[in-house]
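Record Putative aldouronate transport system permease protein, 307 aa.
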Amino acid sequence: MKKLFKVSARHSSLGDRIFDISNYTFMILLCIVMIYPMINTLAISLNDATDSIKGGIFLWPREFTLYNYEHVFGEASLVRSFFMSVSRTVVGTFVSVLCTAMVAYTISRREFVLRKFTTIAFILTMYFNGGLIPNFLLMRDLELIGSFWVYILPGIIGVFNLIVIRSFIEGLPDSLMESAKMDGAGDFTTFFKIVLPLSLPVLATVSLFVAVYQWNSWFDVFLYNGSVPNLSTLQYELMKILQNSNASMSGKTAADAFANANASANVVTPTSIRATMTIIASVPIILVYPFLQKYFVKGLTIGGVKG
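=>
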């Protein structure tokens, strides 16, 4: 192996070496630029709030404390809203991806007469929207306000995700579909037994998109279920905590914050709460991502058709 490396290094030109060094340097700098904000946010969330006002916190906290997390998790409604967010993310992702994949399979079939018309109709919804008030009135008339399904049904079909899945399905070998039909399989059997298993890479990618949207969404909670505590989500509760923190600090200067710090050992600021909220909201997605990443580059159609 060492001999092979030496031979390849000996025959590589000066331009290739310069390109490799430049490429590695650029990628290292890009990783630093992408990772540093997260590490800095974590450091601020673990640092004393009043000390954070001084600035100068980069990779690690200057005065370590867990009070920011204690303050956030001290809210009684946070645990309930966390499970609501998990339920919304799991149910919303499953239903949305399944329905989107079924529609994508339908419009990918050449024998579907209204294929072009249906595709254009979906794409038009990406450019034109009824607006906030018509959407609210529609949810009211459908009796979805005050219910869990107002989080699921309005965005059950994502047009961008639909186009992505349709393009992937169109790239599958037609011989697989033809063989299934020759064996007497119907559309549902073909979809669930052949198309879905072969589409796991794109389904995993779309699932991550939908899950991040469902997990981070809070405005629809504010709009439709703001007065229903049992249907409140984690993001909405964190938003209210941040608003309360901003209201308590309204009109106060840094000197006032230091004065409050002398009077009380534990103080929170909007900056510390915002950093803590960012970490809390990001950790679940970071934990889920590695389990989906392996499907992004997996070519499950290789070897699907035997010569």
